[in-house]
Amino acid sequence: MRPLKTLSAVTLSALALAAVAAIAPARPAAAADAICYNCPPEWADWGAMLKAIKADTGIDVPQDNKNSGQSLAQILAEKASPVADVAYLGVTFGIKAKDAGVTQPYEPKGFADIPDGLKDKDGNWFTIHSGTLGLFVNKDALGGAPVPACWADLLKSEYKGLVGYLDPTSAFVGYVGAVAVNGAMGGSFDDFKPSIEYFKKLQANQPIVPKQTSYARVVSGEIPILFDYDFNAYRAKYNEKGNFAFVIPCEGSVVVPYVMTMVKGAPHPEAAKKVLDYVLSDKGQAMWAKAYLRPARNITLPPEIASRFLPASDYARAKPVDYARMETAQKAFSDAYLNNVK
């Protein structure tokens, strides 16, 4: 990956101040605990993963519902006296965390198996799994509207009040949605005008814009259509009561990794290392696969899981991007969104 730019002091200060105002402090950890920021039980089946870590290692990792932006902001605010041991972040926030000097290198067992480009060479961050961005749909909550096939469909009046996306200036999955729309509409990391215009038009349909993971709100029908990952949609389709679908929009989408990092000055470093070892272990990676995530290491998906994904022809519409460039473009997009959409 090409050299990464360093966040400005102004940007870091803004992130830290936002965290202090909006996020309650994490509870202190007991001696055997490890604190993870952004390990929400309803997202990517972290609930099952945290239980497995406890059962197999004895380490209690409390659930945490921050998003990536909130997690980094709190880590920055606590830089002088860290509370978190590890963090789970969208890849661009992992890059930001390294640039901000709040990570420490650690290469878990299995680190060498992660492809280049999906990890920091020194172990400041590394991919644990990836997902494909698309539309997570509760078909029973559409009120007679058809399941949308394209990004453009969501601009139609029949979807008024039915569409949700996470705040793209704070939640990583929200920014991924913006990148996906932008690329699908002909934009680039140097030109976010297509996505800004799309979100401006979408406001006419009164979208729901939460800041944190909203899996339960889709399952309940409160948000019938959410910009989200395949793994959440498949989890609902095969594990929840209801009628759910995942759509990779006809114009195209993106594939994006999620990473973990060890926080610099982690209060419980040995426990933190064991947690990071676990999520990259054969058992940990197999658990991600069973939760419909693409493992970072080359582990074959079980046939019964692979058969539940959309056909390869659908996934051909989802492409990887330059994640370092995605990170450097994030602030410009956030500024443009805040100035033109909100």
UniProtKB/TrEMBL annotation:
Superkingdom of origin organism: Bacteria
Pfam families per UniProt: SBP_bac_6
Protein's UniProt keywords contain Transit peptide: no
Manganese listed as a keyword: no
Keyword annotations: Signal
SUPFAM superfamilies in the record: Periplasmic binding protein-like II (SSF53850)
Signal peptide from the UniProt entry: 1-31
Name used for this protein in its record: ABC transporter substrate-binding protein
Lineage, top ranks: Bacteria, Pseudomonadati, Pseudomonadota, Alphaproteobacteria, Hyphomicrobiales
